[in-house]
Amino acid sequence: MIRKFSALAVVLFATACVMPPPTVLPGERVEIGFYSVDPQIEWNRAYYSVGETWTIDGYGLQSLRFIMVPDGQSLDQKRSAFGKPLPPDEKTPVFRKSMTPNEVQEFFVETLAQNGWTRTKPARLAPAKFGSLPGFRYPFSMLNGNGLELNRPAYGVMKDDELHLIVYTGTRLHYFPRYKKDVEKLFASIRT
């Protein structure tokens, strides 16, 4: 009987310790490096090696990625056990501060292809304001490993030898159009 209560206590304690993911809320400015945005809607927030990712319904369905890549590093930067960036191997596309927006778009598409995305189709690279800075924008579509089609617009700027991208990804048939207007408002809310 004591074992059952002990096991129950352990389970209850463990579930009480699970924290919900941090969230960002509409109306509050969120600082991301040198710029800030207004989320427009509530998002769950997670951090990773080259930035952070927000989602509402799950990362495989839609996500908003805030990416920072320093000169000489890859988009999917690998880190050592101590958190220090590892140098990219010879096959990994690398960002160079001298890249043009066209080359940044190619760098992004090559990285996606190397990570298993197929039929990546970039389109209409165009100048766009990134807050008060001159930046660029390009939409594209692609297929994941399961053949699911996703759409992505990306906004970017190069500042202080770093590439900064905000990329919204969503499944073409439901999640991309569902949050597209909110994401466009978020893009328009960028302050530098």
SSE inventory with pairings:
Elements: H1 2-17, E1 23-24, E2 30-32, E3 35-37, E4 43-48, E5 51-55, E6 62-70, H2 101-114, E7 118-122, E8 126-130, E9 133-143, E10 149-159, E11 162-171, H3 175-188
Put the structure in a nutshell.
The model has no long low-confidence stretch (mean pLDDT 85).
Question: What does this protein structure show overall?
Answer:
By secondary structure, the protein is of the alpha+beta class. It has one domain (21-188): Protein Transport Mog1p, Chain A, CATH 3.40.1000.10. The chain is built from 3 helices and 11 strands, in the order αββββββαβββββα. The protein has helices spanning 2-17, 101-114, 175-188; strands spanning 23-24, 30-32, 35-37, 43-48, 51-55, 62-70, 118-122, 126-130, 133-143, 149-159, 162-171. Strands 1, 4, 5, 6, 7, 8, 9, 10 and 11 form a 9-stranded antiparallel sheet that branches. It has a two-stranded antiparallel ribbon with strand order 2-3. Strand 9 (133-143) and strand 10 (149-159) form a beta hairpin. The protein is globular, with a radius of gyration of 19 Å. The mean pLDDT is 85.
